[in-house]
Design brief:
The complex is a heterodimer of chains A (326) and B (374).
Chain A (H helix, E strand, L loop, with lengths): L2 H31 L7 H39 L12 H8 L1 H32 L5 H9 L6 H12 L7 H8 L14 H27 L3 H9 L4 H12 L1 H15 L4 H6 L9 H8 L4 H30 L1
Helix pairs in contact in A: 1-2, 2-14, 4-5, 4-8, 4-11, 5-8, 6-8, 8-11, 9-10, 13-14
Chain B lengths: L8 H29 L3 H6 L9 E8 L6 E3 L2 E7 L8 E5 L8 E2 L3 E3 L5 E4 L4 E6 L8 E8 L6 H9 L2 H32 L5 H11 L5 H13 L6 H25 L3 H9 L4 H12 L1 H17 L2 H6 L9 H12 L4 H21 L1 H12 L2
Antiparallel strand pairs in B: 1-9, 2-3, 3-8, 4-5, 4-9, 6-7, 7-8
Helix pairs in contact in B: 1-13, 3-13, 4-7, 4-10, 5-7, 7-10, 8-9, 10-13, 10-14, 12-13
Chain lengths: 326, 374
C-alpha cells in the first residue's frame, strides 16, 4: 500500500477515532453510567461533571505521558546501562563521556552557541523591529526578514553552503575575498574556532525574524504617552529607545532570549549538514546523533545532559505561567 | 510621530538605508540559491550567480584529427577549425591540460618538445610539430557562452533522483501529523480552560514545562517502545511521535486562546441546557478558528522541515526518505559538488513552506505572539 494512501486512511481513522471517542465517551457517561433520570438526577449530573474533564483530557495526557514524560525517566534509566543495554554501569557513561575530548569540545561549542545566538538574534530582531516601526514599507521589510523562519534548517544550511563555498566562482565570501586580492580561496568552515561563528550565523539568520515579530508587537504595545513625555522633555531618539522603550519591553526581550536559547540546545541539523561535526564544530545535539543507533547508553547520557542544561529555563517558565494564572 | 520635534529627516534617511541594507543582506543567500537552481551546472562553477546574466567564459577541450597532417618543410602541420563547422569565439587557448588557457586568441603558444599552436578568434588553428604526429593532439580553449537558464536541474532531481518520492513522503508524514494533534489538543485545551476540577493548575504547569523538553531525550526510549509494540520504524511511528511532540504547544496555544473567549456566551449556552460536549463543538471550536489555524501552520512547518524525528523514526531505506533526509544524507554526500542539483532540491523542499508562509503569515504571527508573550 502506498504510504500516501496509508496517510489518508490514517487521517480518516485518526480524526474519526478522536471524534468518535469524545462523542461516545460523553454519551456513555451521560446516558449509561450516570443517567440524569434515575433516583437522584442532580447527584448523577454532578458526578458526571466530575468525570467529564478527564474524558476530555485523557487522550492528550496519555500521549504527553508516553511521548514526553516517560522518555525523561526512560532516557535516564537507559543512560545507566552499557552500550548493548544489558549491564548496569551506574554513571559509567557519564564519566567516560566527561573524559572524552569530543564531548568537551561539543559542550564548549554549545555554550558558545548559547551565548552568541540568542544575543545576536535578539539584538538584530530588536534593531529591525525598531527601524521598521514607523516605516511605510516596514511590513514588507519585516515579512522578508521573517521569511527564513519558514525554511528548514537543512534548506537554510544548503543556502549558506553556497555562500561559504570554497570557490571564488560560487561562494560569495570567497568572491569578496578574491575581489580584495586574496589569491587562494579559503574554506571558512575549516577555520578552527571561527567556523563555529559561521554556523551560528545561519541560526541567527533564521531566528532574527522570530525575535523581530515578537519585539515589534511589544514595541507597538508601549503606551504612547511615555514616549511623548520623553520627547517633550527633550530626549533624543536614542535616549527614547534605550531609556524609555527598552526598559518597558524588558520582559518580552527575556522571553525571546530564553525561547531562542532553548532552540539552540536542540538544533542539530545545521552542524550535521554543514560540517558533520568535523573541524571542531560539534555541539551536543550533533554529538548525540553520532552515537544514536551505535551506543544508546552514551546517546541517552548526552540527551540527559541537554535536559539538565534546559532545566533552569523550564522551571523559570513554569513559575512565570503560575504567576500569571494567579 | 514623525513630525514631533526631535525626529530629524537625516535620521529617517539613515533608517531607510539601514533597513534596505538589512533586507538585502537577509535575501541575498536565498536569491543566490534560487538563481543557481536554474543555471547549467558547468556555468555555476564557471562564474558566480551574481554574474549569471552575463556571458560565461567556459573551458572546453577539442581533439585535432592527426589524420589531416601535412608536411611543411621540416614541420608536421595540422590546420583546421576547432569548432569544426559550429560557431564560437575563442578567448584563450592552450595545448596542455595543466595550463589550458596560456595564450590569448591570435597569439602563438609554445608547447613542450618545440611544438607550437596558434588559434584565431574564429577557431582557425595551426598546429606545428618537428616530430611526426601520431595521436590526435588536444587543444584546450575557452569561449564566451551566453547565459543558460533552464529547468534541467529540476527535471534531473525530480525524475531521475527520486526526489518526487521524497516529496510525497514528506507530504505523507506532514498531513496526519498536523491534523491529529489539533483535535486531541483542542479537547484538552477546552477542559483546561473552561472546566473546573482538582489539579487543573498542576496540569497547566506540566504542559508549560513539557514545552521545552528536548526531543533528544525521547528518541531512544520511544524507538525502543515502538520496536517492542511492533510498529518499529514506520510512518505510523512518526505520526505518533509528531503528535506527541506537538501536543504541548498545541494545548498551550489553544488554552490561552480559549480562556480569552467571552464567558457570557459559554455560560448562557450552559444555562440553556447545552452539555460541555455541545458547548465545545458548537461554540468554542468555531470561535477558536484563528488559534487552530496558527497551530496548524506551526505544526505543518515544523513537521515538513524536521530532520531529527524523520531520521530516527522512519526506516533508513531510500523509499522512505523525506526530503530533508534525502538532501542531508544522500544529495550532500553523493552529489556534494553538483551545485545545480543541490540548489533545485533545496528549492523543491522549501517551496511549499514558503507558499504557506506568505499566504498565512497573519496566523503565524498571531500564534507566535500568543505562544511566547503570554
Amino acid at each position: 500500500m502506498s504510504p500516501l494512501l496509508q496517510g489518508i486512511i490514517t487521517v480518516i481513522v485518526g480524526v474519526g477515532g478522536c471524534v468518535g471517542y469524545f462523542f461516545l465517551s460523553n454519551l456513555i457517561l451521560d446516558k449509561v453510567i450516570f443517567p440524569p433520570r434515575a433516583d437522584n438526577p442532580g447527584q448523577n449530573i454532578n458526578r458526571a461533571n466530575l468525570v467529564r474533564p478527564w474524558l476530555f483530557l485523557f487522550p492528550a495526557m496519555a500521549a504527553l505521558g508516553l511521548y514526553l514524560v516517560y522518555p525523561v525517566v526512560g532516557s535516564f534509566y537507559r543512560s545507566l546501562y552499557n552500550r548493548s543495554g544489558d549491564e548496569f554501569i551506574g554513571f559509567g557513561n557519564y564519566t567516560t563521556m566527561f573524559a572524552d575530548d569530543g564531548f568537551q569540545i561539543a559542550f564548549f561549542n554549545n555554550m558558545l552557541w548559547v551565548l552568541v545566538v540568542p544575543a545576536a538574534a535578539t539584538f538584530l530582531g530588536l534593531l529591525v523591529a525598531q527601524l521598521t516601526d514607523r516605516l511605510k514599507w516596514g511590513n514588507i521589510a519585516k515579512s522578508l526578514i521573517f521569511m527564513p523562519m519558514a525554511i528548514s534548517f537543512v534548506g537554510a544550511s544548503l543556502i549558506w553552503k553556497f555562500v561559504y563555498a570554497n570557490n571564488a566562482d560560487i561562494g560569495l565570501i570567497n568572491a569578496i575575498r578574491d575581489f580584495f586580492g586574496a589569491s587562494e580561496p579559503l574554506d571558512v568552515l575549516q577555520v578552527r574556532f571561527w567556523n563555529n561563528f559561521f554556523l551560528m550565523f545561519i541560526l541567527v539568520w533564521i531566528q532574527t525574524g522570530f525575535a523581530m515579530v515578537i519585539l515589534s508587537a511589544a514595541l507597538r504595545g508601549i503606551p504612547e504617552e511615555t514616549i511623548e513625555a520623553a520627547i517633550i522633555d527633550g530626549a533624543n531618539p536614542f535616549q527614547v529607545f534605550f531609556k524609555i522603550k527598552v526598559p518597558q519591553i524588558m520582559g518580552t526581550i527575556v522571553v525571546v532570549w530564553t525561547t531562542i536559547t532553548i532552540l539552540v540546545l536542540k538544533v542539530f541539523d545545521i552542524v550535521y549538514t554543514m560540517t558533520g561535526g568535523n573541524f571542531g564544530t560539534d555541539i551536543l545535539p550533533s554529538y548525540m546523533m553520532s552515537y544514536m543507533f551505535r551506543d544508546d547508553g552514551r546517546a541517552t547520557a548526552v540527551a540527559f545532559i541537554i535536559m539538565i542544561v534546559v532545566l533552569p529555563v523550564m522551571i523559570w517558565n513554569i513559575r512565570q505561567a503560575r504567576a500569571e494564572m494567579r | 510621530m514623525d513630525n514631533i520635534a526631535g525626529t530629524k529627516s537625516s535620521l529617517s534617511w539613515a533608517v531607510n538605508l539601514s533597513v534596505i541594507f538589512l533586507v538585502v543582506l537577509w535575501l541575498i543567500p536565498t536569491v543566490g540559491l534560487l538563481v543557481s537552481s536554474f543555471r547549467d551546472r558547468d556555468q555555476i562553477s564557471a562564474s558566480g550567480w551574481w554574474l549569471s546574466p552575463f556571458a560565461v567564459e567556459q573551458n572546453f577541450q577539442a581533439k585535432i584529427p592527426a589524420g589531416e597532417v601535412r608536411q611543411d618543410g621540416e614541420f608536421f602541420v595540422i590546420e583546421g577549425n576547432i569548432f569544426s563547422g559550429g560557431e564560437g569565439e575563442v578567448i584563450r587557448f592552450g595545448g596542455a591540460r595543466s595550463n589550458p588557457t596560456v595564450a590569448a586568441a591570435g597569439e602563438t603558444a609554445e608547447l613542450t618538445r618545440d611544438r607550437s599552436l596558434t588559434v584565431q578568434e574564429n577557431g582557425d588553428f595551426v598546429y606545428r610539430s618537428p616530430a611526426e604526429i601520431k595521436r590526435d593532439p588536444s587543444v584546450y580553449y575557452s569561449t564566451a557562452t551566453p547565459p543558460d537558464f533552464s529547468l534541467d536541474n529540476y527535471q534531473t532531481i525530480l525524475f531521475s533522483n527520486n526526489m518526487d518520492i521524497a516529496f510525497i513522503n514528506t507530504l505523507t508524514v506532514t498531513i496526519p501529523a498536523t491534523i491529529i494533534p489539533i483535535l486531541i489538543a483542542a479537547f484538552a485545551a477546552y477542559a483546561l480552560a473552561w472546566m473546573d476540577f482538582a489539579g487543573r493548575g498542576l496540569l497547566i504547569a506540566m504542559v508549560v514545562g513539557l514545552l521545552v523538553v528536548p526531543l533528544q531525550l525521547a528518541l531512544v526510549p520511544l524507538l525502543q517502545f515502538h520496536n517492542k509494540i511492533g510498529i518499529g520504524q514506520s510512518f505510523l511511528g512518526i505520526w505518533m511521535a509528531h503528535t506527541g511532540f506537538g501536543l504541548p504547544l498545541a494545548i498551550y496555544l489553544l488554552r490561552n486562546y480559549m480562556v480569552g473567549l467571552p464567558r457570557d456566551i459559554i455560560e448562557s449556552a450552559k444555562v440553556d441546557g447545552a452539555t460541555d460536549f455541545q458547548v465545545f463543538t458548537k461554540i468554542v471550536l468555531p470561535l477558536s478558528f484563528p488559534a487552530l489555524a496558527s497551530f496548524a501552520i506551526f505544526q505543518f512547518l515544523w513537521t515538513w522541515n524536521d530532520l531529527l524525528v524523520a531520521k530516527v523514526f522512519l526506516p533508513s531505506n531510500s523509499e522512505s526518505w523525506v526530503m530533508t533526509v534525502k538532501i542531508a544524507d544522500d544529495l550532500l554526500g553523493s552529489r556534494g559538488g553538483d551545485w545545480g542539483i543541490l540548489a533545485s532540491a533545496a528549492f523543491i523542499s522549501i517551496a511549499v513552506p514558503l507558499i504557506v508562509f506568505f499566504t498565512m503569515q497573519r496566523y503565524l504571527v498571531r500564534g507566535l505572539l500568543a505562544g511566547s508573550v503570554k
